[in-house]
Amino acid sequence: MKADVVTIEAGSAGSVDLDEGIFGLKPRADLLQRAVRWQLANRQSGTHKAQGRSEVNGSTRKIVNQKGSGGARHGNRKAPQFRGGGKAFGPVVRSHGHDLPKKVRKLALKTALSTKQAEGKLIVLDEAKMASSKTRALADNLAKLGLSNALIIDGVEVDDNFARAAANIPNIDVLPFMGANVYDILRRDILVLTKSGLERLEERLK
């Protein structure tokens, strides 16, 4: 399939062929959900922690007699039902990550790219380079392209001036091709691929 190529100044720069095996797949919401859930689970720090009754400071003296008090048979004040006691079944430090097969991850990324193409929200850019790192200059160019919420994926490295200019623009993300992932593609409205980024992605996903 063909896709038009535009310049950063919103001019025309010819067209490119998109790989049907990467940009022509049927939408699979289940794959996208699995990939996003896997990414967000791996991102969680898992450093949450509550103290159990064995970790709370306090006396271990039995607070009332076992019999004859007319009340419950309590042990010490570190029990969870008392103020200042330990937490019963509280959170502990752990990893939230889980496995997702490489084939599923690869197919999910292809599906995300295909979804953007099917929705008409894929733009191919000639190159993502700027003569200066002025945010205003890049913001004006993005306005010409109609981009207010977009992910821009470049080749091996992102141009320094372009990255610095884009850093101050809200809802505009810039990534090298190796950083392309399902979550970032879906969280932005428009996906912008440079010609270099497109070639590298197709090599990576074949």
Summarize the entry for a quick read:
Helices cover 35% and strands 14% of the residues. The protein has 206 residues and is of the alpha/beta class. Strands 2-1-3-6-4-5 form a 6-stranded mixed β-sheet.
Overview of the structural elements:
This protein is of the alpha/beta class. The chain has helices spanning 20-23, 29-43, 102-118, 135-145, 160-167, 182-187, 195-205; strands spanning 2-6, 12-17, 122-125, 150-153, 172-175, 190-194. The chain has seven helices and six strands. Strands 2-1-3-6-4-5 form a six-stranded mixed beta sheet. The longest helix is centred in the middle third of the chain and has 17 residues, at 102-118.
What is the element layout, followed by pairings?
Layout: E1 2-6, E2 12-17, H1 20-23, H2 29-43, H3 102-118, E3 122-125, H4 135-145, E4 150-153, H5 160-167, E5 172-175, H6 182-187, E6 190-194, H7 195-205
Parallel strand pairs: 1-3, 3-6, 4-5, 4-6
Antiparallel strand pairs: 1-2
Helix pairs in contact: 2-3, 4-5
CATH topology of the largest domain: Ribosomal Protein L4, Chain: A
The low-pLDDT segments are none
What is the mean pLDDT?
95
Strand order of the largest sheet: 2-1-3-6-4-5
Instruction: Write down the CATH class of the largest domain.
Output: Alpha Beta
Number of structural domains:
2
